[in-house]
Request: fold
Amino acid sequence: MLKKCKIAVLPGDGIGPEVMNQAYKIIDVLNKKYFLKISCKEFLVGHSALKEYNTVMPLSTIYGCEESNAILFGSIGDYSLKYDYRKNSLEKESLLFIRKKFNLFCNIRHAKLYSSIKDSSPLKKNILDKGIDIVCIRELTGGIYFGNSKIKYDKNMNIEYAFDTERYNKQEVYRIADIAFKIAKKRRKHITSIDKSNVLKSSILWREVVKNVSHNYPEVKLNNLYVDNAVMQIIKNPSSFDVILCSNIFGDIISDECAAIIGSIGMLPSASINENKFGLYEPSGGSAPDIKNLNIANPIAQILSLSMLLKYTMNQIEISKKIDDSVNEALKLGYRTKDIISSSHENYVSTEKMGDIISEILIEKK
Ligand code: NAD
Reply:
């Protein structure tokens, strides 16, 4: 269990800095009231770095991350700035670069429906009454996001074309499947592995390896679903899912679907970790340029990402639970940011105010 922790804080673009400021309030409580020694140092990433360093991933940021125990990340992307997406890739050069550099192959997102905000889910009451509690395990350093890709010109056909390559080796699939089974063993003992093995060779390999890993965990039930069917079943019957295991690209899409059905992308945190418990913790959503600087973004995913940092990197399980409970309590008391408000009886609050309320509740818990 770590009491001391050095965090590299990368607020990034758009709503990143606004929601990060709310996580700082929680860190302040943890240091002053819970006697942890968390130190934070900020670094630039994304478009905010581009302005100052002419790169989206400055060396100072990379060194800062290397010298830390964990990274707390906001989000990247700002349409208002000029960026040549044909020549460069903001995501590949910054976020994906960090994932690869620190071997953060395991992404964990826990989509749990808070009963007090059921109304902000787009699903029907009879579906929600059965509850939603899904852990989405996504492979994060392989697959099509890291495979060979290019935009090229075909002289014979006189036309431009582009390609991306989905590629997995057995070891990459094995290690992520093994983690998913370990997590499922401690939960409801049910894994749904998602692939497209009726079409893709990479998915055939994926399915074979997952089946092999399942032999080590006879108590865990394994189901396989094609991705097109999976997205339907998650909407129609989310309570039938416990742990979902997917490749990088399928997990990217499915975890956003999980965020939508629990009410808002602003509620879903994410942990990307390696074998040594070094991790990058971030909200599942992006930089939300449409609402930046309006003080209306939901800071809960950022605060819960910090909670995941306490759980996975610092092994401070009890304090992490207290943060989660404080969020739950704020929601039970009726406080809502704009994305999760649904009735006139609820107490609308700004980004700042939500941060204040959750940190005050956390102080009371001590
Ligand atoms: P987005 O997640 O930024 O926004 C999608 C929708 O969700 C928007 O309506 C937005 O207002 C809303 N939303 C997101 N977070 C919210 C919050 N905390 N509170 C309330 N509402 C919230 O996705 P997008 O619009 O597809 O992408 C915007 C930019 O973010 C792009 O540049 C994209 O590349 C980038 N992006 C970054 C990350 C990341 O940093 N990890 C992830 C996804 C997208």
Observations:
- The chain has a mean pLDDT of 94.
- The chain is about 40% helix and 20% strand.
